[in-house]
Amino acid sequence: MIRIEPRLSPSKIMVYGAPLLAVGLTLVAGALLFGALGYSPTRSMYLFFIAPISDSYGLTELFLKATPLTLCAVGLAVGFRGNVWNIGAEGQLTMGAIAAGAIAVTWHDSTSFLLLPIMMMAGVLGGLAWAAIPAFLKTRFHANEILTSLMLTYVASLFLGYLVNGPLRNPEGFNFPESRMFGDAGLMPLLVEGSRLHIGALIALFIVLLAWLIMSRTLIGFQIKVVGLTPLAAHYAGFSPKKIIWMSLLLGGGLAGLAGMFEVAGPIGQLQPVISPGYGFTAIIVAFLGRLHPVGILCAALLVALSYLGGETVQMELSLPLAVTGVFQGMLLFFLLACDVLINFRFVLGSKRKAVP
Amino acid sequence: MRNLKAVLASAAISLTLVACGDNDTTEQKKEAAPAKKEAVEQKAPEKVEPVKIGFVYVSPIGDAGYTYQHDLGRKAIEEKFGDKIKVSFVESVAEGPDAERVIMNYAKSDYKAVFATSFGYMNPTLKVAKSFPKVAFEHATGYKRAANVNTYLARFYESRYLTGLVAGSMTKSNVIGYVAAFPIPEVVRGINAFTRGIRAVNDKAQVRVIWTNSWFDPGKEREAADTLIGQKADVLTMHADSPATIQAAEDAGIYAIGYNSDFSKFGPNSHLTSSVTNWAPYYVKRVGEILDGSWKGNQDTWEGLSADMVQVAPFHNDVPQEVRDHVEQAKADIIAGKLHPFAGPINDNEGKERVAGGQTMSDGDMLGFNWYVEGVVGKLPQ
């Protein structure tokens, strides 16, 4: 018999071991699933996890896909640590893309090297401004930020739809809802020639390290964690919860806006009715998969990005349905939650607690 | 809430797909067996690598709708060319960066042709095509071509017009509801052709449009359909990919007209007919050209009833014989060039004359439609 028994203190090993164990179990379960469907488990696992990144192009695509996920998730995680539940990164990303895109479209024939930095600033400000609304409503009227930030996502996507159907529509585009393509000065410089990976990936990496430093080495990082863990203690210590709410929402919004700017000025190169295939929502999963830790988030974003790429490969090679990608992501989360039990509990062999000798 | 629904829906879909996947493999095995036998009988013919052809779909294939019709076209070429080709597809590819990666991966893996089936794949297709001049690219619904990129489109508006004749004859409340995805020219052209058909038989009827801003969103489409029913619509149609509109009509006990696929199985009592798109002839033709080496780029195809690229689905029993005859006659006239859905005089819905009597709209004008014809209620979002 196996019993589950509470640990005396949370296991340090399991805090880091649980996600790895979850990934391992997902691989095993995935192989079994493919086997049950009549495909060779080894070949399908190879196609899902190795083939997409077996050449340099595949690697650059992985980093490209992981960049917006990382940026959004790092920003969200700071808020989640402080009990600020920003669910609207998707909308903040969209507003960042709009702000940057509007500038690129307006000055599409500019060749100034200043255009790109200005677009980046606009992207950050766009996302930041959109996140400021829930922050204001929360601090002023105690409106639940989960609701307000989520609702504003739909407002943002409708606003984008209005712009590409109207003011920002390509005048030579037969009335199709798209902006014109950005000029070269409005596109992110590439990191690897012949790929689509741009310097945004490096900036994202830098931001991951910066966020790590802020959360572990600065007073504001400490305050966020204390407010999240024990609001009462934070109150006695005189930490201002309003400041934490503003700070974490603005940070999350700004980073999501930057991610939106990277998308439109990177691989998309224009404004279109939909900018993000749900990065802002997937980033919530990524944040928790990465234990709300910036470096963990980076790993989680790479893993989730790989699951999208792998899903495409198995569709192309094995004609497996797209749902396989969803099943994989679902299994990953399921096993992660299940493995989390091991942090505070442990399995013990034997039917009864042994008597002390 | 919508996301929760989406998660549940995708879970349900994945379960069914897992179930279907099993059947598919057994069927494939059955099909593969005789082919092997033949190969043995012919005593080791020259081994010819099959030509690889890839499809990119914007939504799940599902049971009906835009992508489903493209997939029927894919199956038609598989049936026609057998093991001379190897066809694969990727479904639900978001328009934007993901599309470019999928198309790129096809091109890099020695695919000879890629069919990109949604408008938003236009710029990604052109970008990839530039780096792979030897690969044939086919883009549906777009307007940019290149030395190795063709575009193709069906004249949906012809069958829309014919189904409009049915809607105009069957309505009693003279309010007809239209659930539409995006206010782009292609969709507006459908609304206008449908309305022209309605007005040809019933000059009191009005068309009311609700936009969902999504190609596939059963929840929003259902809400839009219910709202239209609330506004006294007694015939519904849609330009969106889910059967939600047909089902809403079925539940409300009114009529509905489908689009892209024959939607009769979703509304046994409500489904009057559908405007059906048939990509098979085009795909068979183009793949044949790729196999015999005669494929050329920079071509645009826009065919309709005369090339069988659009069709009208079988009618519901409630549709009277004289309406059926009228539709048949109009269809023959369109094919013969005697009738055009957009032959003047045409007024817009603000009373301004847009096409003078005796004139017909040019293809270019139809491709850029950004106004409603008389009979549509409301203003086009600008």
UniProtKB/TrEMBL annotation, chain A:
Pfam families: BPD_transp_2 (PF02653). InterPro entries: ABC_transp_permease. It is found in: Cell membrane. Keywords: Cell membrane, Membrane, Transmembrane, Transmembrane helix. Its main location: membrane. GO terms for cellular component: plasma membrane. Signal peptide: none annotated. It comes from the Bacteria. GO terms for molecular function: transmembrane transporter activity. The chain crosses the membrane at residues 62-80, 87-107, 113-137, 146-164, 197-215, 244-266, 278-306, 326-349. CDD domains: TM_PBP1_transp_TpRbsC_like. It is a multi-pass membrane protein. This is ABC transporter permease. The lineage of its organism: Bacteria, Pseudomonadati, Pseudomonadota, Alphaproteobacteria, Rhodospirillales.
From TrEMBL, chain B:
Residues 1-21 form the signal peptide. Transmembrane segments: none annotated. InterPro entries: ABC-Purine-Binding (IPR052910), Peripla_BP_I (IPR028082), PnrA-like (IPR003760). One of its GO terms (cellular component) is plasma membrane. Residues 51-325 form the ABC transporter substrate-binding protein PnrA-like domain. The keyword Signal applies. Keywords: Signal. It comes from the Bacteria. It holds the Pfam family Bmp. The keyword Ubl conjugation does not apply. This is BMP family ABC transporter substrate-binding protein. It comes from Terasakiella brassicae.
